[in-house]
Amino acid sequence: MLEPTSSKTENQSQPVPSGAAQVESSEFLAFTLGSEEYGIDILKVQEIRGYESVTRIVNAPDFIKGVINLRGIIVPIVDMRIRFNLGTPTYDQFTVVIILNINNRVTGIVVDSVSDVTTLSPQQIKPAPEMGSILSTDYLIGLGTLDDRMLILVDIDKLMTSSEMGLVDHIVAGA
């Protein structure tokens, strides 16, 4: 039993091949807003639900649609189309709510539709270009490229911990 411990120590002193730690791929849930396709880290997704009516909160910004009661938890619902100024949202049979669990805080985001889970290697993720006022690059991981398809990869942690999302917490706490 002592021998494996000593060989473990020997292995630690050997150089690790460059790039060996970066070969892990990441999985993203792909969804659409308008004509664009976005992706968020699948590990942040708790569940996907059909869109249902919400309880509106007085004095909440337009992008906060309201709250729902999800198995005893009050969950704020943010409409991403309104949040990103992507035109007037329409709610149909494809509209879904992605329930996220970020830092033990449950929030729902309304998107036009969800397509699939996509695996991207680090080589398939390119830095995000400056996108002006539509979407701050502060909230972007980059652009995921797959053959003829491109995903705008959203850093949902940064987006949901921004000052605007802190407002969501304040409104829900007062509800």
From TrEMBL:
It holds the Pfam family CheW. It is found in: Cytoplasm. Keywords: Cytoplasm. Residues 1-16 have a biased composition (Polar residues). CDD domains: CheW (cd00732). It comes from the Bacteria. Residues 1-21 are annotated as: Disordered. Gene3D superfamilies: CheA-289, Domain 4, SH3 Domains. Residues 25-165 form the CheW-like domain. InterPro entries: CheW, CheW-like_dom_sf, CheW-lke_dom. Its main location: cytoplasm. This is Chemotaxis protein CheW. It comes from Methylobacillus methanolivorans. The lineage of its organism: Bacteria, Pseudomonadati, Pseudomonadota, Betaproteobacteria, Nitrosomonadales.
